[in-house]
Write a structure and sequence with these properties.
302 residues, alpha/beta, 2 domains, 10-stranded mixed beta sheet, two-stranded antiparallel ribbon
């Protein structure tokens, strides 16, 4: 592993769940980047992830969970075990391009910077939304009524996602409210709220991180993100968990009334898609009838 050029040591934290090929590819790629240590938390994978890591990457700090603890709780384990000054949370399917990690580390020369994220790219090289404003009920409404897709360049009807708008103006680092948990570097002063099993835990974490300093979006730091490689659940379950994450966010940071309104807006969005996407009727019906507390967790989860 390559040591950082400055005094800050970087710990890379990776949560894996049945993603052996992606995880091994990422571990190999990290050897050419400025990394102090790599910690992999495996959430009870049933593939050969852990055996391959032990054989091919014995220098990796591997934590094997007997059950799937969820994304946030597993990352918290990594944060608790790290010995570096900075943590880089990377999805197992998120691969850094040359100098991507070094440019993120450089941003922390400014003591006011508390977190940073790079530009996420789809495997075909196209831009993937990777920074956003704070989550609001208006943003959820625009998402669920498809207004953000109908008016992608409108700040009014697409108020949440902003990374594309930032890049269209400049490639300079820009202060934002949130970067994606798939690629999140931070000073380890906050932990994930473990009430979130999957989805929106990064939204909630960034909400608290903002109180300590600045979050930067750095477009020239590029990572290729396969997006969703670790999901083995049905598509409807992922959507329902995402909806549950938003609803829990509003419960925590606003009020039960906001949570209920978000629940209603999410179900209105499912009903709209049930009507306009008849070929996916079963999927959207399952989302529509998901109870208030969200869908059942996987059987291998705590």
């Amino acid at each position: 592993m390559i040591e950082n050029a400055n005094s800050m040591k970087l710990s890379v934290i990776i949560v894996s769940y049945n993603t052996a090929s992606h995880t091994l590819k990422l571990l190999a790629a990290l050897k050419s980047h400025p990394v102090h240590e790599v910690i992999v938390i495996d959430n009870a994978s049933i593939d050969e992830t852990t055996s391959f890591i032990q054989k091919l990457h014995p220098d990796v700090n591997l934590i094997q969970n007997p059950q799937n603890r969820g994304f946030g709780a597993a990352n918290n384990q990594g944060l608790d075990h790290m010995t570096g000054d900075l943590a880089l949370l990377l999805n197992s399917d998120c691969f850094p391009e040359p100098n991507a990690i070094a440019s993120l580390v450089q941003a922390f020369q400014d003591p006011n910077v508390i977190a940073a994220g790079g530009q996420l790219l789809n495997p075909d090289g196209t831009h993937q939304q990777s920074a956003c404003n704070n989550l609001t009920l208006w943003a959820v409404l625009c998402e669920q009524l498809l207004l953000e897709k109908l008016f992608p360049n409108s700040s009014f009807f697409n108020p949440y996602w902003i990374s594309r708008k930032i890049i269209d103006r400049s490639l300079d680092p820009a202060p934002v409210s949130q970067v994606m948990g798939a690629c999140l570097m931070l000073r380890p002063i906050e932990r994930f709220d473990e009430r979130f099993f999957l989805y929106c835990e990064d939204t909630e974490l960034c909400r608290r991180v903002q109180t300590h300093g600045q979050i930067l979006y750095i477009p020239e730091s590029k990572f290729v993100h396969a997006l969703g490689a670790s999901s083995t659940q049905n598509r409807w379950w992922s959507i329902a968990m995402y909806n549950r994450g938003k609803e829990l966010y509003f419960q925590i940071h606003h009020s039960p009334i906001h949570q209920t309104l978000c629940f209603i807006i999410n179900r209105a969005g499912a009903l709209l898609r049930l009507v306009i996407k008849p070929r996916q009727a079963k999927q959207w019906l399952q989302v529509l009838v998901t109870p208030f507390g969200g869908p059942t967790l996987p059987t291998d989860a705590q």
